[in-house]
Amino acid sequence: MTDRLSRASSPAGIDDDLAVLWRDASRDGPVARALMANLVVYRDCPATEQIDLAAPVTQVPVDEVACRHPSRVIVLHHGGQPDLCAPMGASVCILLSGPPTARFGVEQIAVRSACAEASLPSIVRRLALGDIPTSVWWTEDVSRSTPLEALVTLGRQLVYDSRHWNDVRRGVLALAPVIGHRHAPDLADLNWRRLTPMRQALTQALAPPLGPIDARAVRLRVRHRPGDGALAWLLIGWFTSRLDWSDADLPATVEEHAEEDAVLSVSIGAPEATHITATMNGHHVRVEYEGGLAPFAIATLHETDADAVAAELRNLTYDTALRDALAALARRVISSGSP
Hints:
This protein has 2 domains: 3-132, no CATH class; 185-339, 2-Layer Sandwich (Dihydrodipicolinate Reductase, domain 2). Helices cover 30% and strands 26% of the residues. The protein has helices at residues 14-25, 62-68, 120-127, 149-152, 168-180, 190-194, 196-205, 229-243, 305-314, 320-336; strands spanning 3-9, 32-33, 37-44, 71-78, 89-97, 104-113, 134-138, 157-160, 186-189, 219-224, 252-256, 264-269, 276-280, 284-289, 296-299. α4 links the parallel β7 and β8 (157-160). α2 crosses α9.
């Protein structure tokens, strides 16, 4: 069970108001302050829109993530404007979790900003704590709300979910400058995480004794359920980067299907080679061969979005495979205009 203590504040009074909340939280017993990272949660908010900074964020599981991976959470409700200026308002909160005998609290700061992008680093640095990593969680659709370079390159890690992309092509192009930046953060895509069992199954399926793949002969047919086009194109990007396919000639097709159970499927064929089909649903990835080889299955991940985000925050590593897949897709988009 999680309790929430909140207090209206101002940009200049955040630290003092947090101190008051910590005193209130410890009146009924000791409360440990849990802290592993800074987590900047970005929310699009037009400058003219009125919002309640003290209200919990309901569109994404911010509180659940904070309790799974204790962080100083900075929720940035931002509306872009041309002027350089300070935040317009603030609210502070402490989330209390754990059993009565071992309670711990995490801090959450909500800030309202309507300023130029160049002002954001100073706002975040003022609130972030030193000696711990900073991650930026971009909760918006990247294809519609382009990540702000000044903000996302400030952190060690950029967390996002390509499942929300309305336009895969625009999403890939929006991330291209981030990938190429000299201070590029580690990328953590929740959708790429969902694709992990499929990639593991295909790696096993295409391993010896089948022998090496002839990249010139392989043909793919990828099918996805409605709303999971980004998942299909991430798989195409992975194959493209691993097999060094040219941007001009992509030996793959992507189709949407109406099957209820299957999330994603891929058929792999080549002349004089075993035909392979891998199908992923909510429980497993099943690989079947056209021939005498026995099929096999790999279990899929069963986790909430909060579990997935917290796991990525703990895993501060550079994902070369994801970066290469996105870079391959970006080259294809630039050269051919698709996906």
